[in-house]
């Protein structure tokens, strides 16, 4: 591949990552926000690195993602589960669980959430790279600092202003709803209209936020 094409492809992949990585940075921040600062940075770095390694492997066979039913459905449900776990952590004291256990759980959340929420990212990168593994590795590795920095920034913001956790959870609820309704099986069964999408997104946001508030009151 000529150098000019390589550089253009690499720039395209970096741009795709920056445009599509906002949701990933948010879910990473929510997953690690309850950790101490040192463990938080370690959790983000380890989780992001493992997720990138797996994403590189998956991007090379990304065309198969288009035919896998229930993938986005399962991913959306997993994102909802993470959002619910995060709401539980809001009311937990910092030492509610041993640090190693919390760190391992946070890394697992980061890896799984990044993969389940990155189907669009993977497919876009696969198209931009035209199957060139070097381009895939280059683009994803360059995007890691952006995800790590933005995740740390969001986690710090949520710790300073706890109400922003609910805003983040609401965004995750919308992301999860969109993922569920975009699954090929759901499209075939429901033929979702804009009205259905708005209703599902709004219902999930209301259920999570109201459920989180009720959960906190019961634990007091």
Percentage of residues in helical conformation: over 70%
Biggest sheet overview: none
Share of β-strand residues: under 5%
Helices and strands, in order, run as HHHHHHHHHH
Question: What do the pLDDT scores average to?
Answer: 75
Q: Given the C-alpha coordinates, what overall shape results?
A: globular
Instruction: Indicate how many domains the architecture comprises.
Output: 1
- Structural class, from secondary structure content? mainly alpha
Stretches with pLDDT under 50, minimum 5 residues: 93-98
What is Rg? Answer: 18 Å
Strand elements, count: 0
Distance between the termini: 62 Å
Give the helix tally: 10
Account of the 3D structure:
The chain is mainly alpha-helical and about 220 residues long. Helix content is about 85%, strand content about 0%. It contains ten helices and no strands. The longest helix has 28 residues, at about 135-160. It is globular and about 65 Å long. The model is unreliable at about 95-100 (pLDDT under 50).
């Amino acid at each position: 591949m000529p150098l000019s094409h390589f550089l253009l492809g690499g720039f395209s992949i970096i741009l795709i990552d920056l445009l599509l990585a906002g949701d990933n940075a948010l879910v990473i921040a929510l997953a690690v926000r309850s950790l101490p600062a040192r463990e938080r940075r370690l959790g983000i770095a380890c989780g992001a690195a493992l997720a990138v390694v797996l994403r590189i492997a998956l991007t090379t066979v990304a065309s198969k993602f288009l035919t896998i039913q229930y993938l986005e459905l399962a991913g959306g449900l997993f994102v909802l589960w993470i959002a619910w776990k995060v709401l539980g952590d809001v009311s937990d004291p910092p030492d509610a669980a041993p640090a190693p256990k919390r760190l391992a759980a946070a890394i697992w959340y980061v890896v799984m959430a990044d993969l389940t929420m990155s189907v669009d990212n993977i497919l876009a990168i696969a198209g931009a790279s035209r199957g060139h593994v070097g381009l895939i590795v280059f683009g994803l590795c360059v995007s890691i600092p952006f995800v790590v920095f933005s995740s740390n920034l969001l986690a710090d913001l949520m710790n300073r202003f706890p109400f922003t956790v609910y805003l983040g959870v609401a965004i995750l609820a919308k992301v999860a709803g969109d993922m569920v309704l975009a699954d090929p099986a759901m499209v075939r069964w429901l033929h979702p209209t804009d009205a259905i999408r708005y209703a599902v997104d709004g219902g999930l946001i209301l259920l999570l936020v109201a459920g989180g508030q009720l959960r906190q009151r019961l634990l007091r």
